[in-house]
Amino acid sequence: MIRIKFPLMKRSLVAILRGIRPDETAAIIDGLVEAGFTAIEIPLNSPDPFRSIEIAVNRAPKDVLIGAGTVLTIEDVDRLNGVGGRLMVSPNVNRQVIAHAASQGMVTMPGVFTPTEALAACAAGASALKFFPASVLGPSGINAIRAILPRDVPVGAVGGVSNEDFAAYAKVGVRTFGLGSSLYKAGMDANEVARRGVAAIEAFDALAEVEL
Question: Catalytic site residue 5?
């Protein structure tokens, strides 16, 4: 089993750009990178997603982790690898997909909701876990499941999470977040995305004041 470690980042925030189009990708990526994001996911149920991912990879600095969400098959992983993506996010736990992505050197973050799914993802070699939808579990639910997980596997809260929720999750030790509709919605102007990105970065930086 290959496990690619989740990278150490100044801010463990993943921007989720579901619905983004290739023609708007460059401007939005520029704004998010300038705001301070170092991980960006483009879900595969977006228009022409692999083209957008390729644009993002070529546009962003090399230390910015770019990849795909809603990855379901080994073929998806191969296409992602072909355009230079290094982050594989899935909505489920598929051992073959996780292992294949890891064999390509990708950071993997499968979606989990239960202790059984979380432990299965860890056993499959996931780099990190995406608790989704986090808004249903809440900080207390995720914290309860964390008690039985390996300490070296980062836990992220995704789904219904916005800047306003950071502090509540941080109090139970969760400091990795995926930001979707609170950051970007299909058709949103690049300047508005950048503004929201700056607000998210400022909110994350304020977590230094939260006692764990």
Answer: no
